[in-house]
Amino acid sequence: MIRFFLILSLLLLNFERVWSEEEGLSRQEKNLLRSIERIDKKNEDLGKTIPLEVKKKILEDVHESDEAWQISSGLTFIATTTEGNDVTFIYRANLDISNYSEKEIQDFQDFFFKRTREEGCSQSLARSVIFLLDTTYNYEFIDITNKSFGKKMNINKADCKGIKTKGSPRLFPEAYVEMLLEEYS
Q1: C-alpha atoms less than 13 angstroms from C-alpha of 9 in its C-beta half-sphere
Q2: How many other C-beta atoms can be found within 10 angstroms of the C-beta atom of residue 81?
Q3: pLDDT at 18 over 70
Q4: What whole-number percentage of the chain has pLDDT above 70?
Q5: What is the pTM of this model?
């Protein structure tokens, strides 16, 4: 009987090692991702206690002060709009986009989206807000002739799944949520 349990435990140990190699994640990385998922779920549950109208007011106030600023020599952030839980950031390319191919535009957007998603989801405070307020961040692009280009992109909590936080994941403080409820109700 003991021999049976020893063989079974060795098989399970090897199975776990094979499973880890298949996914490319160590046991420690898997545990970290599970921990992040638990905290995301707690932030999401806490966000369900906030009425939709309060969420809208919070998002409007947070993004009301966003002013135009240059990201690079070729791209300027120019405006933010808020509608419900959706926040839209509008960027202006400092060039006439008709001079570029669809592939070049797509490559730029893929790079921008990947960088923005990873930064937003890996920053523990930004991530906690995404899950708390169930926010979707939309990105739109226009050129110097005010012509829209490329595809519209968005980031929401589903995009954060599987992305590790820099440092410890952050549980949004319940006391701060209560304060927000008092202020915005």
Answers
A1: 6
A2: 14
A3: no
A4: 81
A5: 0.76
